[in-house]
Request: fold
Amino acid sequence: MDPDTPNFDSLAHIYRWMEYCSFGPMLERCRFHFLSRCVQARHALVLGDGDGRFTARLLAANPAVHADAVDASAAMLAVLQGRAQSCCPDADARLHTIQADLRQFTPNGESYDLVVSHFFLDSLTDDEVSALVERLLPSLTTDAIWLVSEFSVPEKGLRRATARMLIRSLYFAFAITTRLRVHHIPNYAKVFRDHGFHRREDAGYLGGILTAELWERRTD
Ligand SMILES: C[S@@+](CC[C@H](N)C(=O)[O-])C[C@H]1O[C@@H](n2cnc3c(N)ncnc32)[C@H](O)[C@@H]1O
Reply:
């Protein structure tokens, strides 16, 4: 792995508890908000799912889906695989884990009808999100959906200041623990629109500081 790649290995076993201590169940609710919309999916690409809570729930909720889970962290992928195996007896047949830096990753001829990125796009710059979408597009079906969970900065008021402070402190903590070099949430919405996606639904949590979004590819 490139020495420049953020390294989340040391957080793999404590990530879930760090999250519960700081946000309670809110990130979890955000992550699972659109899970019921994944029941038709047949081949999912899960980007940076960390300890695999979403991937495990996806495999359990949809017995027909196959998932490719890509993450740079070997330790996160090991936790993800263990979690999937403990909740789905056939996980080995339906889950493929890939250790790769998503700033370089290109799928290998697959055809995905579902892409998932929960609290991952914030690890990338605008240009990196754009390059990632361009590399994924040829491997997405024409009606693919993309689920996003992210931190968000409300337009105004106290919640805006709170969100900015919170996001700054999270980036500071991740810079120290994982060598993450990004400091701003990228404008992924613009990148998605520029590449033919439209936001079909969204939901806010924590007064709009967290957002769950369902994007749909439009090829007309
Ligand atoms: C903040 S965690 C989010 C984990 C999970 N998706 C969630 O909902 O909490 C970010 C994850 O993305 C992975 N990651 C960060 N940058 C990456 C990159 N450039 N390539 C691949 N994985 C990366 C990390 O290893 C980590 O597992």
Notes: The mean pLDDT is 95.
